[in-house]
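Table S2 (text version). Query chain:
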Amino acid sequence: MKQREPASEVMRYIRTNSLKRLFWLRRRRSLDGDVECQKAAVSENPERRKGRFDNAIDAVVAAEDPQKRPIWKCFSYEEIYVATEGFRSERLVGKGGYAEVYKGVLPNGEEIAVKRLTRALNEERKVKEFLTEIGTIGHVSHPNVLSLLGCCIDNGLYLIFLFSSRGSVASLLHDEKMPTMDWNTRYKIVMGTASGLHYLHKGCQRRIIHRDIKSSNILLTSDFEPQISDFGLAKWLPSQWTHHSIAPIEGTFGHLAPEYFMHGIVDEKTDVFAFGVFLLEMISGRKPVDGSHQSLHSWAKPILQQCGIERLVDPRLEGAYDVVQLRTLAFAASLCIRASARWRPTMNEVLEVMEEEKIDLERWSMPEEEEEEDQDELWGLEDLECECDSSFSSSISQEDWASIESCQN
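Corresponding C-alpha cell output:
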C-alpha cells in the first residue's frame, strides 16, 4: 500500500503544478505594455493527476466551446502592489474570514478591486476557494454578474475585478449615515439581481449555484446596477444531476434553505430561497437576522399569509413606493421562501411574477395539506437555527465583500 504524502508535500505539488497548469504563463508584451496570459491546456498524462484538486483544475480549464475560453490578464505582483500602494491600510475596503479587498488604481486610471486570500486561511482551503471562484466566474458574462479582470499567483493568490464604486447593497441599505434608498432604486436592484441569478442557473455553459446570495454579496455600479459577487461557495451542477449533496453546511444563517440546512441538498432552489430573503430585506429594510436572532423570513411569513403587505414596507420610505410593484415583489418573496423546494418557483418564474401586474394566485396555490407541511418544516428550521451557536454561524459565513464601500482615494 502506497504511503500517503505529507500534507506539506501535497500542498507543494498543488502550488507548483496545479496552479501553473491552470495558467499558461506565456507573458507577451502588447503595444501598451500590458501582460497577457492564457490558460494552459491540461496535460493528459495520468501520472500527473493527483486527486480532487487536479479535477478542479480540469473543470476550470475545460470549455464546451474553445472559442469561448476566457483570456484573463495575468497581473504581476508588482502591478497590483503599485496599484494598491503597497496594500496600504487606507486602501482596505473590505475584510472577511477568507479574504481582504483593496482598492487599486492602474496606470491608465482604471479603478480595480484586488481580492487577496488571507494567510489566516489554511493553505488547502485557500487554494480551493481560489480555484472555485476563478473557475465559476472566469467564463461568465452578464451585466448583473461581477466580471473577472484577471488574477495574480505571485506572492499569494489574488483575484482582480473592476471596482464597484457604490459598494454593496447591504452597506447602503443598512448604514444609518447613508440616505434612505428610494423605492425605484430598490426595484432596479432586485430586478437586476434576479436577472443575474437566472443567468447563472440557465444562461451559463454550466449551471452555477451561488449558495451565498445576500445583500453584502450584491455590489453596485455608479448607476446602481447590481452585480452578483463572491463565488467562493459556488458549485457547478452538471446537467444530468438534479442536486448536490454537500457537507459541511456553509453559507449564512437567515438565508439557508431548509433542505440545505437540514439535509445538505443544493440545487437552483437553494438560491431561490436566499433570493426571497433578499427581496424581503429590500422591501422592509430589515436585516436578515435581527438582534433577537429572529430570521427575516420567519417574521415576514405570517404577515404575507395575512395579506398585510403594507406592514412589510420600510417605514423610512414614508409611503413613497409603487403599490403594484410592492404586491408583486411581496408575492414573489412569499413563493421563494416556501419551505418545500418543490413548491418554489425557478428564477425564470420569479422574474415572470415580478414583471406581471396581475398576480395569478391559482397558478401558485398549494394543496391544504402541503401548506400545513410546509409551515411545519419552516418552524422546524427555525428551531434548529435557534439552537445553533452564533459562533458557528460566523465561522461558516463569507463576508469578503460585506463592507466594500465607496472610497475616494
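Notes on Table S2: Residues 1-18, 23-67, 386-409 have pLDDT under 50 and may be disordered. The longest strand covers residues 99-105.
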